[in-house]
Design goal:
Blueprint lengths: L4 H6 L4 E2 L3 H19 L2 H4 L4 H6 L2 E2 L4 E2 L3 E3 L5 E3 L4 E2 L3 E4 L4 E3 L4 E2 L4 E3 L1 E3 L3 H5 L2 E4 L2 E3 L4 E2 L4 E3 L3 E2 L4 E2 L4 E2 L8 E3 L4 E3 L3
Parallel strand pairs: 2-5, 3-6, 4-7, 5-8, 6-9, 7-10, 8-13, 9-14, 10-15, 13-16, 14-17, 15-18, 17-19
Antiparallel strand pairs: 1-12, 11-12, 19-20
Length: about 180
């Protein structure tokens, strides 16, 4: 492995999150998130100006309710009309792409980072970043958790509180921990 920790993170290689460049990027994100979360709703609109500038893409009509938290912001790509309800957290060490018209309930958590299995690796800050993709018109229920490397298909439904550890096919409903497919009504 060669290059900066940011380059390793972007390449999907093991990197150390205890890095000055990555910390500076997280500080920038925290500032944008603080502004977004602190602005009065009428002044903030759909997205605080700093957060909107930070995101990789914010489609037309994309809305993030406060409070919100993200790690970097620039790895988050929101399609048109995406809605993130209050309390969502996106740890975007890798790309997080959310398709148009998709709805996330309150307190949804999206985690791209996977920590090292060995205690010494975790103490050294070793992580690997795995991308997440959520298709168009999906619905992610409140307090669901989506782990890195997962793809959720178009029109899929993730039940409230589900923990998604593997891909979800289009137009499939999953519930539980770990999330499993159930028959749709």
């Amino acid at each position: 492995m060669a290059g900066s920790e940011r380059a390793k993170m972007a390449a999907g290689e093991w990197y150390t999150c205890l890095d000055d460049e990555l910390e500076a990027l997280r500080v920038t994100a925290r500032d944008a998130v603080f502004e977004h979360n602190s602005l009065p709703p009428r002044q903030r609109g759909n997205l605080g100006p700093g957060l909107k500038a930070l995101l990789g893409r914010a489609g037309e009509g994309a809305r993030i309710e406060a409070p919100f938290h993200c790690a970097y912001g620039f790895n988050i790509f929101l399609g048109d009309g995406v809605f993130l309800n209050a309390g969502c957290t996106i740890l975007d060490t890798a790309s997080v792409r959310i398709g148009k018209g998709t709805l996330l309930g309150p307190n949804v958590q999206i985690y791209c980072a996977e920590h090292h299995k060995a205690a010494a690796g975790r103490q050294a800050g070793l992580e690997i970043a795995r991308p997440i993709e959520i298709g168009t018109n999906a619905w992610i229920g409140g307090s669901a958790i989506i782990l890195g490397g997962v793809s959720i298909g178009e029109g899929a439904i993730v039940g409230a509180g589900a923990v998604v550890t593997r891909d979800v096919a289009a137009n499939t409903t999953v519930v539980g921990n770990p999330a499993r497919a159930v028959k749709r009504d």
